[in-house]
Amino acid sequence: MKYSKLFGKATKNKFKQASATSHQLLLQAGYIRQLSAGRFTLLPLGLKVNKKIEAIIRKEIDKIGAQELIVPTLHPIELWQQANRDKKFGASMMRVTDRNNAEFTLGATAEVIMLDLVKQFTPTYKDLPVNIYQFSQKFRDEARATGGLLRVREFIMKDGYSFHKNEKSLLKTYQKYWQAYLNIFNKFKLDTLVVESDNGAIGGSISHEFMVETPVGEDFVVKCDKCDYAANLETAQFLRQEINLKDAIKPFEIISQPEWVETMEDNVKHYKLPKTRFLKNVVYKDSDGTIVVGVIRGDLSVSKAKLAKVYGAKGDLEPATDKDLESIGTKYGWVHCWGHKAVYVGDLSLKTVRNFIGGLKEKDTDSTNVNYDRDFKCQMFGDIAEAQSDSTCAKCKQGRLKLLKCVEVGNIFNIGYTYSQAMDGFFIDKSGKPKHLYMGSYGIGLGRAMATIVEKHHDKNGIVWPKSVTPYMVHLIGLDLHEKLVLEKADSLYRHLKKKHISVLYDNRLEDSAGSKFADADLIGIPVRIVISKKSTEKGGFEYKVRSEKQFKILDLKSIVDTIVKFYS
Ligand SMILES: [Zn+2]
């Protein structure tokens, strides 16, 4: 490719809206342009990288026996409704209506579509497992689309789906995807941490995410400093410290309390006791209008994901508004730990303290010596607290949990029967009876992978692509091209490399300075740079330099091809 003809060139001008390094570099180097928040065009260079990423994924996924197909992007809303998925996705689902008022959603993921497809073939146990995947455009109406390709509203995803007769069979495929993903991210030169995760809007039981640690990450992962435990913050388990279980249980009392005492900080100030001694309530509303109160020890925070799981939320839980609180007869800061028209979900930490303060706040009174089980009991009880930095690891019971900021580059979901039960997804077993299909799903976002690679592989001058995903193998820079001999040599090297199946981006511009050509090459980040100039021809060849190194060497025509081939082998 002659750079003079390339659509979408590099620029030294910085982009003000870029919030992450990868966002800035991909814009500046001419890989992407923004259409609107969270929607990006892949320019010719960007598409080249995208295709490399796609090819690597396809190769590894094909290897484990998955078969590629493609389903429509517009999904009939009824299919999503059958499995209650429209509610689970909530506001992040894009809706579209056609001329007949039929409602569709722009696919955010395709579990229900793939299940509907498999159903059409009435599979028997002999046809299982089915393992299918696609590369297609996905849509998610993210509230905050920031960080360039890291968090977008429209993106290309590799989404795979497998269908089995039981969990045992699923786990075999699950393991194969796990290994395939490790191979893929290894080729992208991304070190991943595989963590347990919450299935969230996808549904089902345990799943895993492939995380890359980076300061621009918006996912939090906890990792034990003593054992191998690692989990997404949304699901991370930890041991609750026992506070005062040796204290004698005292009689329940209503005590007077100054009117200004409302928040946890006010309590600490007034009673001169640590946060652990107080009760705290966090209030949410489910999609069906049910008010859900998470009751927890004062020093801990309620994890929305854990609460949704213990409670069995029907949709996306939203923080209760003033109006919601009014509807159950209370207001902010005055929520009781029992007695409101709500579903109460208690955290395990409620059993680590004796004689809590709080729980029945009124204008100038509250309760004290409150003990779980004796004075109140939540309808549901379980692990709804968010792990914190330095929490004790629940696995080894010794180590401390560290919080890491990560980008999720891939996930594998053990979905189970969630959709097959909701949508009558059956297969015929050996005895001729219909049984529910057991499902798994597997995703990798291509744009996010590209951005994460840039986050991990760049220097102060620009991108440094790993060999596997570079848009071209060689960045050939021609200098002094107004001199006929140099121009001829440069053109002939360009043709020669192409003949040897070495892809080349050839900067053949006549007017641009050497400095700006080098700066553009650094920004674009192709791993091998070759310079041909009056000076290099006088020295008998071409300047060869690897992007990540400082030194260059002079090579002749024969050795340059061998060196490139060796570099990429
Ligand atoms: Zn541990």
Question: What does this entry look like structurally?
Answer:
- The protein is built from 15 helices and 33 strands.
- With about 575 residues, the protein is an alpha+beta fold.
- The longest helix has 21 residues.
- It is globular.
- The model has no long low-confidence stretch (mean pLDDT about 95).
- The structure holds zinc ion.
Q: Rg from C-alpha positions? A: 29 Å
Question: What is the number of strand segments?
Answer: 33
Q: What gross morphology would you assign?
A: globular
Small-molecule components bound? zinc ion
- Quote the distance from N terminus to C terminus: 22 Å
| Helix share, percent | 25-40%
The main pleated sheet reads as: 9 strands, mixed
Q: Estimate the strand proportion.
A: 25-35%
Structural class: alpha+beta
Determine the number of helices (DSSP H or I, runs of at least 4 residues).
Answer: 15
Mean pLDDT equals 95
Residue runs with pLDDT of under 50 for 5 or more positions: none
Task: Give me the secondary-structure topology.
Blueprint: H1 21-28, E1 32-36, E2 39-42, H2 44-63, E3 67-68, E4 74-76, H3 77-82, H4 85-89, E5 94-97, E6 103-106, H5 111-119, E7 130-139, E8 154-164, H6 167-187, E9 193-197, E10 207-213, E11 219-224, E12 230-232, E13 238-239, E14 253-256, H7 264-271, E15 279-285, E16 291-297, H8 304-311, E17 318-319, H9 322-327, E18 343-347, E19 356-357, E20 365-370, E21 380-382, E22 392-393, E23 401-416, H10 418-422, E24 426-428, E25 434-436, E26 438-445, H11 446-456, E27 458-459, E28 462-463, E29 474-478, H12 484-499, E30 504-507, H13 514-524, E31 528-532, H14 534-538, E32 542-546, E33 552-555, H15 557-568
Parallel strand pairs: 3-7, 16-18, 18-21, 29-30, 29-31
Antiparallel strand pairs: 1-2, 4-6, 5-6, 7-8, 8-26, 9-10, 10-23, 11-12, 11-23, 13-22, 14-20, 15-16, 15-17, 19-20, 23-26, 24-25, 27-28, 31-32, 32-33
Helix pairs in contact: 1-11, 2-6, 2-11
The structure holds zinc ion (ZN).
